[in-house]
Amino acid sequence: MCILPPSTHIRGRNPQSRRALLTKMQSINGTTTLSLKRLVSPWLGANGTSPSWAPTSGEPAQGISSRFLSEKRFILSLMLIQCALLHPKFQNSTSARLTRLSLGPLIIGWWLCCPFRLPVLPAEDRNLISFFMATILALKSIEWTFATGPYHMRSLKTVQGAPVWEKESESEASSNNNKTNMEDLFLWTIMLFTSERGFRWSWGPEAKGNTRSFSGALFELVWLHVLMVPCLGFLLYSQDWTDYHFYPQRALLSMGVPSFRGLGLLAGCLHSVCTLFAIRCSFEIFHGTATLMTYLLPDGQSESSTQQASHLTSAPLFELSSLAHFWGKFWHQKYRRAFVFCGGKPAMWLARVLGGSSKVQKACGVVGVFTISGFLHEYPMYAFQQEPHPYPRKLFKTLPASFLFFFVQSFGVILEPLIIPYIPKQIGGPKIWTVSFLLLTAPLFTGEVMSPGRSDESIPTSSTMDLG
């Protein structure tokens, strides 16, 4: 069948017929059965409600202006300058330090305002990931503005036949950074700019390199898909576009699960568990795919690149020994550096200035880390849910649920050493505490990210192809 532009079909018709045809075309606009953006939830067909909302003014959404794109390129260029000035060759340069400090307010302010300057688009065209990226880049610029010393690269070492990222002393790290030509400086800058976990840097954590075979990495990727697909299917099946909410209990009933007392509680827990697994699996699938590609490199590069592609998490999928272990090992560590630098260190410094003991300083550091984590997740959601969203977020009126979820985790981490010893090991001990606390608080977060209009953009992947 030949598909012609609308103007071709209506050309030659009389004015009344043309107006009628245009009206009909407008009424079915965006409802084609081949549109993947409409493949959201079985409830959508039953309720007959479109998942999009148009600007209240009735005017078409405007695209991103060329001026905005030019500003974005300019700000990214300034960030690259900030990044480059952290090279060891500028270690004793006062002007380099002052330049980083002077660029900070402009860059940070621009990225924080960026989500509110993006054009208003229908739900299916909004990209929540870009909102998160703006917040992440603002946190990165805060670090590069106030970092005191240069950053040094480190190399992957072999310990007892296994590749390992080890902590290095300042003198040992600086001896590996003697190259200062422009080509090496440019490569150094790009690697720092795109680094998230910091394995190649002296400030990065200790970690094991990748020792999996190609078949092992492929099997793990398949297993992650097998786990994620049913979780994501249940989450989408629970959505209802009539009120932009989700009903996991209704979804279970429609699948033939008999009704009984406590089904609502079970459905809510299942929804939270599926959301957390879907998020973790999506991160690991993206990372695992990039890791799998390193096995396809030429022989001279494959082994080195494969070993450097460390695991995204350092704990088995179902290991839950404590909240500290969950957030420090089970969950991904892609933004750990930003949370520690922007939240943990300032909070510990303030506690030390006020005369707090080492335990108080450590507790304040934990609160600071989770406070910044809550900000990273709440701020983009606040910008995303602006009018004409059917349920817009209002400052000081809408409950900042995502922020509260991460904020209360800090108190769980601080208090668990006092609580876990009183839980009998026969009933699970630490695991019971960890699972109970997470399931009790998770709806604050899972209800936010899996609501209709956000879930298709809320399952994160990765900001960069960072393998270390």
From TrEMBL:
Organism superkingdom: Eukaryota
Main location, first listed in the record: membrane
Domain named Wax synthase: residues: 316-389
Compartments, record wording: Membrane
Gene Ontology cellular component annotations, sorted alphabetically: membrane
PANTHER family cross-referenced by the UniProt entry: LONG-CHAIN-ALCOHOL O-FATTY-ACYLTRANSFERASE 3-RELATED, OS04G0481900 PROTEIN
Protein name per Swiss-Prot or TrEMBL: Wax synthase domain-containing protein
Native species: Puccinia striiformis
Lineage: Eukaryota, Fungi, Dikarya, Basidiomycota, Pucciniomycotina
